[in-house]
From TrEMBL:
<comment type="similarity">
    <text>Belongs to the glycosyltransferase 87 family.</text>
</comment>
<feature type="transmembrane region" description="Helical">
    <location>
        <begin position="32"/>
        <end position="51"/>
    </location>
</feature>
<feature type="transmembrane region" description="Helical">
    <location>
        <begin position="105"/>
        <end position="125"/>
    </location>
</feature>
<dbReference type="InterPro" id="IPR018584">
    <property type="entry name" value="GT87"/>
</dbReference>
<keyword id="KW-1133">Transmembrane helix</keyword>
<feature type="transmembrane region" description="Helical">
    <location>
        <begin position="132"/>
        <end position="150"/>
    </location>
</feature>
<keyword id="KW-0812">Transmembrane</keyword>
<feature type="transmembrane region" description="Helical">
    <location>
        <begin position="208"/>
        <end position="227"/>
    </location>
</feature>
<protein>
    <submittedName>
        <fullName>Glycosyltransferase family 87 protein</fullName>
    </submittedName>
</protein>
<keyword id="KW-1003">Cell membrane</keyword>
<dbReference type="Pfam" id="PF09594">
    <property type="entry name" value="GT87"/>
</dbReference>
<feature type="transmembrane region" description="Helical">
    <location>
        <begin position="269"/>
        <end position="289"/>
    </location>
</feature>
<keyword id="KW-0808">Transferase</keyword>
<feature type="transmembrane region" description="Helical">
    <location>
        <begin position="321"/>
        <end position="347"/>
    </location>
</feature>
<feature type="transmembrane region" description="Helical">
    <location>
        <begin position="367"/>
        <end position="387"/>
    </location>
</feature>
<feature type="transmembrane region" description="Helical">
    <location>
        <begin position="179"/>
        <end position="202"/>
    </location>
</feature>
<keyword id="KW-0472">Membrane</keyword>
């Protein structure tokens, strides 16, 4: 019989490894000076954006759309407003505040949402919010360029940074319908988590899938009916998105279809290569789900592969999208056999450490070359982990009622050994 342990009210298998030295150390409570220092560095990193030009500009676009609606205009008259109709009404509470006030508040609100996502990601693996791992992740994020980017922009991807681990945590606890509601609510604001719908398909959780699809559809329809000229979303905004936005956003796009042409690859070939890479990653996501193992690890790695498949081919793919999946992947380091325990998992993240100069890649318009390494590297490491895990599961036959590996000693056994 397979051994199980109880950790945080949930049964864990040897893969969860309470006897694992690294897991024990990471789960242990951090001294309060260490936690205080980590939070201080985190807040200073967020506060640093107050002195940067155009702080909160992505959030400002959504607020401007909400103000346009209040003035009787169509939010989609602004080509920079690219979200679904529900986001307009979600931004209405910000409309009365002055731009100066929002510029000061947005970096800290965004940082708080990212930190909430980190806490939820840690809870997936029963790691405390005051643990050594929590302190390390918090301090590490302060030096991580994707975090600095999302705090500077005030991008609404922050909602997905919270929703992704929240949905996986609910699914882990058997509350799949609630997970579908969380995903649907996030998609209603920004369709970042659309690839996660395939997780419900793999798990055959059709009611959860119905929530995840139906909720944003209803919210978007109701919001569209309540605003002037909603058809602009279909005639103006959607074509703009399908063409990868414009020359303003193109240098920051880290998808294969955007970066490879900058290296001399023809556009059509770049799209084909990106599509092939995405299909391959989707195949590995399916294989990861079928492999099984620790349920928390399976949900996180499979969900991350689904998201990475979209990041590789869809346009645009910006650097801060990495924050949707990385907190949960990093939290999985407490599980033996996790991809995050491989040194190769961390290598693609090194170029994203702030303050480290990289020759020819220091400018913001060349940052996408580092970003594509991060997305592609993370997908490759997760795919390789799936490949190795499936290869390690050697086929077995039964000899006199006992499990017998095809690579076992071929010498015959006595009867007492096979009972």
């Amino acid at each position: 019989m397979r051994k199980v342990w109880r950790a945080g009210g949930r049964a864990r298998t040897p893969d969860g490894a309470p006897g694992d030295g690294l897991a024990r150390w990471a789960r242990g409570r951090a001294p309060w000076p260490v936690l205080t220092a980590a939070l201080l560095v985190y807040l200073l990193s967020a506060g640093r954006m107050l002195g940067v030009r155009r702080t909160g500009m992505d959030n400002a676009v959504v607020v401007r759309a909400a103000r346009t609606l209040l003035d009787g205009g169509s939010p989609y008259a602004d080509k920079r407003f690219l979200y679904l109709p529900g986001a307009v009404f979600a931004a209405l509470p910000q409309a009365p505040f002055a731009d100066r006030t929002l510029t000061r508040a947005v970096p800290f609100v965004t940082a708080a949402l990212v930190l909430a996502g980190v806490v939820l990601a840690l809870r997936i693996f029963d790691v405390r919010a005051d643990s050594r791992l929590a302190a390390a992740v918090t301090a590490g994020l302060a030096l991580f360029l994707p975090f600095q980017a999302i705090v500077h922009l005030g991008n609404w991807t922050a909602a997905s940074v919270v929703a992704f681990p929240a949905a996986l945590l609910l699914a882990l606890r058997g509350r799949w319908s609630a997970a579908g509601v969380v995903v649907g609510a996030a998609v209603a604001l920004k369709p970042m988590l659309v690839p996660l719908l395939l997780l419900f398909v793999l798990a055959r959780r059709w009611r959860a899938l119905a929530w995840a699809v139906g909720l944003p559809a209803l919210v978007s329809l109701a919001a569209a009916l309540a605003m002037p000229r909603p058809q602009l979303f279909l005639t103006k905004t959607l074509p703009f998105l399908l063409h990868g936005q414009d020359d303003y956003a193109a240098p920051y796009d880290a998808s294969w279809t955007a970066v490879l042409p900058r290296l001399g690859v023809p556009h059509h070939l770049a799209f084909v290569l990106g599509a092939c890479a995405a299909v391959a990653v989707l195949g590995f996501a399916r294989a990861r789900w079928r492999t099984g193992g620790d349920e928390a690890l399976r949900l996180v790695e499979c969900g991350s592969l689904l998201m990475l498949a979209a990041f590789l081919v869809s346009r645009p793919s910006f650097v801060h999208y990495a924050l949707v999946i990385l907190p949960a992947l990093v939290a999985s380091v407490v599980v033996r056999g996790a991809a995050a325990r491989q040194v190769w998992f961390w290598m693609p993240l090194v170029p994203q450490v702030a303050g480290v100069p990289w020759p020819e890649l220091g400018g913001s318009r060349r940052h996408a070359f580092k970003d594509i390494v991060m997305f592609t590297g993370a997908a490759a490491v997760l795919a390789l982990a799936v490949w190795r895990r499936r290869a390690a599961a050697a086929p077995k036959v039964t000899v006199s009622g006992a499990p017998y590996s095809l690579s076992s000693d071929p010498d015959p056994r006595n009867a007492s050994e096979t009972r």
